[in-house]
Amino acid sequence: MKAQALTAKSRQEALDALSASAEGGPVIDVLVIGGGVTGAGTALDSATRGLNTVVVDAQDWASGTSRWSTKLVHGGLRYLQMLDFKLVHEALTERGLLLTRIAPHLVKPMPFLIPLEHRIWQRAYYGAGVTLYDALANLMPGRRALPIHQHRSRKGLAKKFPDLKHDQAIGAVEYYDATVDDARLVATIVRTAVSYGAKAATRTQVVEILKDAAGRVSGAVLQDLETGNKITAKVNHVINCTGVWTDDVGTLAKTDGGLNVLASRAFTLSCPVSV
Ligand SMILES: Cc1cc2nc3c(=O)[nH]c(=O)nc-3n(C[C@H](O)[C@H](O)[C@H](O)COP(=O)(O)OP(=O)(O)OC[C@H]3O[C@@H](n4cnc5c(N)ncnc54)[C@H](O)[C@@H]3O)c2cc1C
């Protein structure tokens, strides 16, 4: 693999590959629509399998939901309540890989604090939960990616977080997850996909999906939003990674993929802090 930059030239190469595919050039094996984290990961997976891959985004890499997340890389502590140990273990393993190997420059440890109001049962309940969380994380071979949890006394909590109101909390449990620079992670994954041979173009919107006589997807029409030019491409497979725009792209293909995406408004809960 030779590291590649995402430049105007590499964008043009992607557009050229798309138009060449309909003019007797190599057919695109996989066209990935959407350059959020799902599309970037899909393009990387596809390129590393040796498939002729192009990923496009109508705007910029991570311009959709992938740039506006809470930026957490977590194992899903709350899923332990549902006894989904397999899911939590898998997520914790991925968290560990991101922290230590895949993107240690973009994924950083982040401490969380669970304040306690009841001395015995809350310490036992939350303590058991985070002990299991740490244990599942540490099943991964190699060095530990994050510190293990700690119990804080009322005094310890006051020392560590002097600005909190300390009249109600009798202490806390402190545990670790991680935080990610989400947009840079997506751009890095796209760059890695390009380094493995994928082609990538921003400001390129899929405006039509073409089908053959048998009704099978055989190509797409894309619009270069910089010039307004339309490009017809011959493709073997289209993968729709457009998140909340999934239905719009499904409409282009005139399919009901059996999946309905309902837009939901992100919200932040505000509540009085009692510690
Ligand atoms: C408030 C909030 C907080 C979250 N917090 C976290 C968190 O802390 N940790 C976590 O892991 N996950 C979190 N998530 C979930 C995570 O952000 C999403 O699951 C993820 O970003 C979805 O990525 P995506 O690639 O599927 O979609 P998107 O990032 O939305 O990408 C879709 C892309 O498709 C492009 N597109 C659309 N139509 C076309 C077209 N016709 N042609 C070309 N391109 C097109 C768009 O421009 C867009 O860039 C959060 C989500 C929300 C809403």
Q: What's the gist of this structure?
A:
With 275 residues, this protein is α/β, with parallel strands linked by helices. 33% of the residues lie in helices and 24% in strands.
Provide the low-confidence segments as ranges. 264-275
Question: Major sheet, described briefly?
Answer: 6 strands, mixed
SSE sequence, one letter per element = HEHEEHEHEHEHEEEEH
Q: Count of DSSP E strands?
A: 10
Could you tell me how far the N terminus lies from the C terminus, measured between alpha carbons in angstroms? 52 Å
Continuous helix count? 7
> In which order are the strands of the major sheet placed?
7-2-1-10-9-8
Strand content: 15-25%
Mean of pLDDT: 91
Helix content: 25-40%
List the ions, cofactors and other small molecules found in this model.
Answer: flavin-adenine dinucleotide
Q: What would you report as the Rg, rounded to the nearest angstrom? A: 23 Å
Which descriptor suits the 3D outline?
A: elongated
Structural class: alpha/beta
Can you tell me about this structure?
By secondary structure, the protein is of the alpha/beta class. The protein is 33% helix and 24% strand. It has seven helices and ten strands. It has helices at residues 8-21, 37-48, 85-102, 120-137, 154-160, 182-195, 246-252, and strands at residues 28-33, 53-56, 72-73, 107-116, 150-153, 171-180, 199-201, 204-211, 217-224, 230-240. The strands form two sheets. It has a six-stranded mixed beta sheet with strand order 7-2-1-10-9-8, with helices on both faces. The radius of gyration is 23 Å and the shape is elongated. 31% of the residues are buried. Residues 264-275 have low confidence and may be disordered.
